From TrEMBL:
The keyword Transcription regulation applies. Residues 34-166 form the Paired domain. One of its GO terms (cellular component) is nucleus. Residues 1-25, 170-228 are annotated as: Disordered. This is Paired box protein Pax-7-like.
Amino acid sequence: MSSLPGTVPRMMRPTPGQNYSRSGFPLEVSTPLGQGRVNQLGGVFINGRPLPNHIRHKIVEMAHHGIRPCVISRQLRVSHGCVSKILCRYQETGSIRPGAIGGSKPRQVATPDVEKRVEEYKRDNPGMFSWEIRDKLLKDGVCDRSTVPSGEASSVSSISRVLRARFGKKDDEDECDKKDEDGEKKTKHSIDGILGDKGRPEDTQPGPSSGSLFCRIEIEGDPNVGWR
DNA sequence: TGCGTCACGGTTGAG
DNA sequence: GTCTCAACCGTGACG
């Protein structure tokens, strides 16, 4: 198989004259946003951001058809390390979704026991205020003044946080899934958004329709919607 | 030549 | 509103 037009020979180290280091990038795509970059295979990517879902789908789809990772890499112009990583993850988790980027680990503001009680209180009385829950925790002896949920701000806000984590999550996930469906194309940070459709591999590469498998691949709920 | 792995610079978002 | 920091990202190079 011949290399794609514009493809830089693989495994070529940058010479001193080339202005990029081990992880520097040789080219930037001229866009209003100035975020797109071109890898050695001629593919466009945004440094630090996940590949668009349609590329990820395509990688998995081609692998399903028995196409070797190196071929997938060249066809889609995605580094083989990335192809390898995505396929490994797909095998392990069954999901093509990128992991949740950013954020901190949720801080343990209350013991599991206290969280459970807060959950019970809220379930029994959905209209209950955080300060009421705090008072009830004290009153019921679930915790004393030193162990009642307390964060940097206040114990009430800590309880609110517990409530958000317990009761506000489902809606958020639904919202994420919804965003994921159209967010990919709408967002100005997507490669699609930057390049329009000209950068889409389906348009430049012959191959099986991406639509068929799109329906078969299960998309899991994920806090990270990929392209925003 | 193909692939697994890792360092790197970058982005993101909760706290 | 701003900062910090730890999570993740894809690339590119090594073996």
